[in-house]
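re: ur question from the group chat, yeah i did fold both. here u go
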Amino acid sequence: MRTVPTENCDVVMTFPDTTDDHTLLWLLNHVRLGIPELIMQIRHHRHTRIYAFFVTATYENLLRGAEEIGLRKPVKAEFGGGTRVFSCEEDYIYQNIENELNFFTSQERQSIIRYWMENLRAKQGETLHNIHFLEGQPIIPELAARGVIQQVFPVHEQRILSRLMKSWVQAVCERQPLDEICEYFGVKIAMYFSWLGFYTSSLVYPAVFGMMLWFFTESDQTSRDLSCVVFALFNVVWATLFLEGWKRRGAELAYKWGTLDTPAEFIEEPRPQFRGVKRISPVTNCEEFYYPPWKRLLFQSCVSLPICVSCLCFVFVVMLACFELQEFVLSIRELPRLVRFFPKILLAIIVSSCDEVYRKIAYWLNDMENYRLQSAYEKHLIIKIVLFQFVNSYLSLFYIGFYLKDMERLKEMLATLLVIRQFLQNVKEVAQPHLYQKVQQGEINSRSILLFVRYALRRLVQKYALPQRPARTPGDPLEPGFGNRKKCLNGGCGVPEEEEEGISEEDELEEESIMDCGLKLKRVSFLEKEKRVEECLLTQQDDDIGFLQEGSPTLMEKGSDPASVFQLGDDEEDEKEISGELQDIEEQETAVKLRPHRKRKKKLSVEQELRKEGDEEDDESARKQKRESWMDPPEDHNPTKLTQAEVESCMKKYEDTFQDYQEMFVQFGYVVLFSSAFPLAAVCALVNNIIEIRSDAFKLCSGLQRPFGRRVDGIGQWQVRS
């Protein structure tokens, strides 16, 4: 399938396939009346079968929005230079104000549009189905929290993304283009990558010093103890200088990107997921949700604390079990040295798996504690995650170092944890988004997996369990094991012109062979599918195109009510016939048993095709004269094309930089706390971080949805935790 760029769209809002027309009309009408600055387009995605709103805004409205959110823009040199909060009254003093295409970056446009969408507020007594809004409550975040809106995400800009792939992902030995990252992904993500780059460059010093100690330390115990003490003192000094150096570097970047003196919001909006009982606020005298603090404290005492203790006890039990397995393996002297690392590798894999489980538990506990503000929610989430990660990652090392007091074993355990965990994390970060996208697009499903497993099992059974079949003589027209069934033409399964009438089903081997033929036929006939679909679409009259045809824009009479958008379908029966033909074609190609005497569809002649195209163009021009489109992109009837927005809607959402900081937090602890026992720990961390920068960049540029830009002045709570 070919991806078609999505034009005139900055933000996409998608809805589940079960969304009714009333919900779409209700939200469309509220956006049209409440946010007149936005231009809304309705689409129906062909592949995922969902509705979507494509959102953008005009340049003049974006200027007013930049003033509302306090966006800082660079000032011309003749007016003093530097940056300044944008003002429409003095717009002439800003650089590139005359250039509508380059004054705002795509990330700034999307941030302004998101600000408007989050400030669409409900009036008193407004309801949608069973959702009752409070007066002044943001509508779109509430609908997203309730699942009415599936997702809201900004679209990628392919031109800039291609440039970032070359200058950032593929340029391994060059400096990161932090300014371009900030312009495209926002300050928060750029701040993370700048911190990661600063941390990686700082690791050069302990890596070099550790290699010197590793190669030049004598083998006697006194020299080892002395080098351990010296390296521990070096780590203390290095960690202090690194943290203070980053404070200075972070302040420089915040000033450069215009977020150093960003004022905090005076009133922080409640989280959309916050739930409680309605009451009149004693401060504002307005209706609000209230959750008693004693309920949160009760949940923390009776649920959160026992679960946390149980998880920590489980980690301890698993660690002891792995150590017992290690003792058993060491007791067998005949085993090779590599096999003796198996218990350590097993423990590293279990620790990595527990990280994901504990992360989900921490999120669930935090959600159940029901914090009102996002800042409080993130603070308590970091506390839980850090507690789980600290015990899960460092417990075995502390046990070996301070209870068993085995430095050689500590060295091996630390090396195993560093290498295995970092390898698994990098593979998961790169592979998981792409697998998620394949599943969402339907390229990987349960049926394809089942067919693959059946095929693999059948081949194994034929190879090891069943006797070998006698070789067929060249003149034998029958295949062994098929009874009286003839061999497929063109070598077996290459799109046969004729198929025999009788299909014998005498035994299981015959059915398996037929399934094999079906699988091969499916693989070689994909190109034929595209031709057949095009033939079906050519027989469709333009007047029979129903409302909201998949992938096509929605036309609306000028000045008409939005409700008329759902009444533009002309004739649903013809549309059902076409969809039925497409479904029949797909069923024919995915069938695992060959059908006898399959009839082929006659192709239209070249003259008929040209005549059809001319009629469609005439009908299209006549219809465009009667109606005025409020969406610019033209209709697309090619089912093999996917719009960029539809492809990105199948991608995995980039949650936050939280998990990325979490990985580096654990690694930083390994280097600072335990590298005195294993001086090459900093070398392993340095190599991993060089790969980590590019893998995270590749993940952002190719496998995930584009996140909204966030304006921050630092790395937040992680500066304190470090």
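okk and heres the other one u asked abt
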Amino acid sequence: MAEDNPNNPILSKFAVILAGVASAAVVVTVYHCVVVSCRNRGRQRSDRERLQQLMYQRADQTPSSVDNSAALLMIPAHKYHKGMELAGNDDGVCAVCLSEFEEGEELRTLPECMHSFHVACIDMWLYSHTNCPLCRSNATPSPLLQHGLPESSSGGLTDVVVQSRRL
């Protein structure tokens, strides 16, 4: 019956020890959660930074982006006029942005397949691709177009063989 007495010193010591252990457990748990949260935040930030660095390095190391920017200079832009017949675009729609061509907009027509696109659309596409977004044919001009016709040493005419491909 000693346990029923509220002034029992053993019971009050036990309650104090139990409260102290419980408080210590709560403090340790909160501390652990804070430390883990800070580590994860730092790890996520460093992972994100590493990923961005890899993306920038890949973009810098990609030879196609350099080649494509040079190829873009070889593909001339022209203005669109209503009624203009576009060889590869029967519907007069840019296949990249799906917008109709408007009067006076600048277009690029790819030399191999003759598909036409808005300048900004095809430039963005060709920055990361080397082919036509519609038919996947090579989008860069052929070496003959890039370097011009070869000069003949005799000053006469030069035979040029033109190959056509049908898709």
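fwiw on the second one: The chain is about 50% helix and 5% strand. Residues 145-167 have pLDDT under 50 and may be disordered. idk if thats what u expected
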